[in-house]
Amino acid sequence: MLTTDLRPIAKSMEFKQMFSSVELLLRIELEYLFPMAHIVTPNLKEASALLGGVQLETVDNMRSAAKSIHDMGPRNVLVKGGDLASSLDAVDIFFDGDNFYELAALWLRV
Fold this sequence. Notes:
Number of helices: 4
Strand content: 15-25%
CATH architecture: 3-Layer(aba) Sandwich
Structural class: alpha/beta
CATH topology: UDP-N-acetylmuramoyl-L-alanine:D-glutamate ligase
Strand order of the largest sheet: 1-2-3-4-5
Shape: globular
Helix content: 25-40%
């Protein structure tokens, strides 16, 4: 297993220019990279894109997203919810395939 952090890159402009389509890039990530990844760390927008545009608006949505992304092959998933509108805290959800861990800290909006 590849021991690395895989950050989904489908929304990055540099990678959009390198690949003929975002769909191709997502297919490469899902078929080849996710199964080798130790951890995948999407933010809310990236997790939404991986799940076909599902809106992530609550911590429960983030948990569901972490489970669904885990089912795509990575060993662990950390959904980063720093800009989760429904929370006054910065909340991340970690899922290891068995357990969910909620990581929360006061969000200082500047």
